[in-house]
Amino acid sequence: MTYCVGMVLDRGIVLMSDTRTNSGVDNISVFRKMFTWQVPGDRIITLMTAGNLATTQAVISQLQERMKEPDARDNVLLKSPTMFQVATEIGRLTRATIAQRQEANGQRGQGRFTASIIVAGQIKGMEPRLFMIYPEGNFIEASTDTPFFQIGETKYGRPIIIRGYDRTMSLEDAVKLLMVSFDSTLKANLSVGLPLDLQVIGRDTFEASHQHRIKGDDPYFQAISSSWGDALKSAFHSLPDYSFFRDE
């Protein structure tokens, strides 16, 4: 399974993904799910993927192949003038890849091959933008009403983000919030696992302002996990006590 989150703030974009893939409890592997392309001073584009691993890798591989010969091919990542067009082309590529794999395996329409992708980044002269692409190739963009996207195993970490998110918060606080969201997901679902990949894209920097791989022995993540658990217990015990002899 997978858990990836992209969050847009006034100060930029914060992204985090896990790296676990599994086909049963005895077949667990680590695969990167966050991929970045950038042109210094002009643009940065990051993708996070969830779904059938072979399908998502096929999409990423095709994008990477285009990067090898940027002058000879229609390179959507380097040449698209807007993030909207980047999302449109990646959506088309995703839909075509899924269709080809389903047809080749004689399972058209059965939905076995799936891929969901979060696309984030900024192109010079424009605002930072965040999109979520569905397996069908269509997509939606983050907005004031929907300022973050999740793909994969979303339900355990979502309440944390909903309660803690503030568009004006610092990038550092956003990282802390995602740490708590991922810790809650890790505690609840063994199909999501360390290490985690973190990336921060500051507004108008056109580069990864901060990147970090969070492993099991990461002291900050350990402190967040322990402190959050203690804080929850303290908050629980501070709530009013329930009585079986309340006045009706």
Notable characteristics:
35% helix, single chain, 6 helices, alpha+beta, 248 residues, 12 strands, five-stranded antiparallel sheet
Description of the molecule:
The protein has 248 residues and is of the alpha+beta class. The protein has six helices and twelve strands. A hairpin with a 5-residue loop joins strand 8 and strand 9. Helix 5 packs across helix 6. The chain is globular.
How would you summarize this macromolecular structure in one to three sentences?
With 248 residues, this protein is an alpha+beta fold. It has helices spanning 53-68, 76-79, 83-104, 158-164, 171-188, 219-238; strands at residues 3-9, 12-17, 20-22, 28-30, 34-39, 43-51, 115-123, 129-133, 139-141, 148-152, 196-202, 210-214. The strands form three sheets. Strands 10-1-2-11-12 form a five-stranded antiparallel sheet, with helices on one face. The chain has a five-stranded antiparallel sheet with strand order 5-6-7-8-9. A two-stranded antiparallel ribbon has the order 3-4.
